[in-house]
Amino acid sequence: MDVTQYHSHYADSSLHIYSLYPFLQKATTSRIILQQRFSANDELVSVNKRMAGKAVDKPPTSAFDFEIVEGVSDHLRTVVASSGQSSPWIDPATIKLRQRIGRGVFGDVWLATRHQTTADYDEYHEVAVKMLHPMKEDNINLVLDHLANLFTQCQGLQHVCWLQGLSVINGKLCIVMKFYEGSIGDKMARAKGGKMSLQDVIRYGTDLARGIMELHSKEILILNLKPHNFLLDENDHAILGDIGIPYLLLGVPLLTSDMSRRLGTPNYMAPEQWQPEVRGPISFETDSWGFGCSIVEMLTGSQPWSGKSVDEIHKAVVQKQEKPHFPGGLPPAVENVIIGCFEYDFRNRPLMGDIFQAFLSSPEAAYGDGGWRELGSLLNLDKLSGSGYSKWLVLKDQLQIRDTVRSRKPPNSCKPENMEVPEGTIVGVERDTERNGFVLVRVHGIHDPLRVHGSTLERVTFGLAAGDWVRLEEDRKKHSSVGILHSIYRNGSVAVAFIGLETFWKGNCSELQMAEAFCARQFVRLKPDTFSPRFEWPRKRGGDWATGRVCQVLPNGCLVVNFPGMLVFGDENSSFLADPAEVEIVSFNSSAGIVKKYKHLEDFHWAVRPLLVALGLFTAMKLGLFVGKRVGGSKLKKGSNLVIPIEGQKGEVQTAGNAAWLPPKVANIIFREGASVTTTSR
Ligand SMILES: Nc1ncnc2c1ncn2[C@@H]1O[C@H](COP(=O)(O)OP(=O)(O)OP(=O)(O)O)[C@@H](O)[C@H]1O
């Protein structure tokens, strides 16, 4: 293929972008030819001059002396849109990189010039080019495919950075975008104290929530929300500058990758974002966390977790489950929604629509001059978040007439505790309280419908409700076979979270079976047929697998397990993860025989065994002394305390009182009988 064929090839808009890759090497040649054509063609110069108000005087001769047509004309936008854009391809020869303006984990951003020419006009425009880091050749087609899809999805979105096309320059994939005036991050850097007025935060926040909703409606997650990725247009509107590159590159190995930062920028990353296949999956609500962090930064002028290393942030967010601090005194709706953004379990966070509503309902006008009035000290959100289901979780499913419903189980519980509605059908929804109101439920055997608050009910479709534990009929190696159902639509399509998957598994409820539920405080051990568990699992002294206690259930069913029966020293890891498909529940009742029951008792606390051993010795001693005294003729009155002489001790010491050093549960077990044992010195 010669250069002419190559150009006509690209002109064919139906051409699929990844079929172009083998010919990219020729791009440099084609650029030279294009420039020669310009230099020789005075006609084109006069065409330029005819472009009202946007003419350039002479054609550029090098990569750095283009004259720029200010802004991006609507004309160009129309041309791009009307070209059908079935091929988003931009000839690399028409792009001149001028200056690098940023370097991120996924690539560099360049200020560049794009040359566009038709029979009627000839224009040079400033564009921004996001040049992705090099990747293995095998992956290029896959990423191009994703990019082409992203490009199509993003066309016409109002609050998202305008993508002009895709190209490959020097073998690197490039996203060509409109060049914007600057970012919110830049504006903050110039502002006093590095922060913004509440008025601006609410105004920009509303714009951004709109942009995020636009992308979410196309099933695109952004995963990299931060003030430097919020661009400002010529009308001072905030535009989403990152169109979900981390999401796009999910699972694609990059040649130069910092794995800890592959899924976003640490300061803004949600707990599940650090290891989505273990603590995930990532979801729309992952962006709610990033949005919350960005708003906090815009309000305070300091980055969440500023001054902490990546490891420290990981520890704070993922392990200690800490939340960023933010100032009080915000409009109540905004404050509530931001508190919700920092829920550890993403199901309890608001969706972007909820955030948008909260920002929209907080008119900045109510705050006078828009000055930031900081009321009180920083709020620690740890204290604010309550237990139980959040309002945001309940709002995610709107009940409708004819839905089958049942009472919701309390959170962290396997069994329903108050089944006011074991199963019923919605026959009425209160209209004036649509989003969070009462419903009428017809329950079998009860004459009149019950009036119940919608938040206490969950929808049951084909026998399943969100939150149920499910098993995939077909066993798949990559991910666990047991997971948690997150949503079930009325047509039976489902989204399930499984360990091993970074995003939801989507399918039909007919592929699922109910699975045994796990909840906090249950004891679990590896199933006998599990020889190499997915996660590290400790062994007892004898070499058998230890039994642990579930302290948390993650949204994908991953169990966080502690081992109270094992003594932990210093910094040793005290909590482990477990795949629910690999463990079984252990309980006193299910432990057959006295030996197994005793062994299970040892799982409650590491001190049980030494104490019982000590108690056994002690009892033996008591018995020995008693027998000795009987033999020696001394008589103890019935009911009197047993007195044990101890060398060198003065006064009476109640051993039961000494149980204060014991953990309370162990103390209860051992001293439950209320035996009074006294020691005294001779
Ligand atoms: N279309 C654009 N117009 C103007 N400036 C842009 C555009 N896109 C990005 N920028 C700016 O370029 C800089 C670098 O952006 P980039 O997104 O690559 O870096 P980053 O935000 O540091 O890292 P990353 O997003 O990869 O985590 C940012 O300051 C951003 O504001």
Give the SSE layout.
Layout: H1 3-11, H2 27-40, H3 42-50, H4 74-82, E1 95-103, E2 107-117, E3 122-132, H5 137-154, E4 163-169, E5 172-178, E6 182-183, H6 184-190, H7 198-216, E7 230-232, E8 238-240, H8 245-248, H9 276-279, H10 284-300, H11 310-319, E9 326-327, H12 332-341, H13 352-360, E10 378-379, H14 381-384, H15 391-395, E11 404-407, E12 424-429, E13 438-443, E14 450-453, E15 457-460, E16 469-472, E17 482-488, E18 493-498, E19 505-508, E20 512-514, E21 523-526, E22 548-553, E23 559-562, E24 575-578, E25 583-586, H16 593-602, H17 608-632, E26 642-645, E27 653-654, H18 655-658, H19 664-671, E28 677-680
Parallel strand pairs: 26-28
Antiparallel strand pairs: 1-2, 2-3, 3-5, 4-5, 6-7, 7-8, 9-10, 11-12, 11-15, 12-13, 13-14, 16-17, 16-20, 17-18, 18-19, 21-22, 21-25, 22-23, 23-24, 27-28
Helix pairs in contact: 7-10, 7-13, 12-13
Bound molecules: adenosine-5'-triphosphate.
Adenosine-5'-triphosphate is lined by residues 101-102, 104-106, 109, 128, 161, 177-180, 183, 224, 228-229, 231, 241-242, 265.
General shape: globular
- Give the rounded overall mean pLDDT: 75
Bound molecule types: adenosine-5'-triphosphate
Q: Strand fraction band?
A: 15-25%
Radius of gyration: 33 Å
Q: What distance separates the N and C termini?
A: 108 Å
Content-based structural category: alpha+beta
Protein name: Protein kinase domain-containing protein
Keywords: ATP-binding, Membrane, Nucleotide-binding, Transmembrane, Transmembrane helix
GO molecular function, one term: ATP binding
InterPro entries: Kinase-like_dom_sf (IPR011009), OCM_Kinase (IPR053293), Prot_kinase_dom (IPR000719), Protein_kinase_ATP_BS (IPR017441), Ser-Thr/Tyr_kinase_cat_dom (IPR001245)
